[in-house]
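DM from R.C. (forwarded with permission)

"hey, sorry to bug you on a friday — could you get me a structure for this? deadline for the figure draft is monday and I only need the backbone to look sensible"
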Amino acid sequence: MNVKIEYCAPCGYRKRADAAAAALKEHLGMDAELVPGKGGVFRVYADGKEIIARAKGHFPSPEEIVAAVAGYKANG
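My reply, with the result:
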């Protein structure tokens, strides 16, 4: 499975992306590609499909991201 985390570089979301990638590695043994973006973006993709994202100021926690990727993996 190919996992990408797109984050807003100008907004300083890299730390959040790093934390999410570390959690995916620790809990699922998966590497995530970090993709810098802009415009306030924070999205996680699995095999090109968006599975979780920042919405209305809420950032998904690393645990929520791991759960979303694990659910996609189980059902995808």
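R.C.: lifesaver. The two ends are 10 Å apart (CA to CA).
me: no worries. The longest helix spans residues 14-28.
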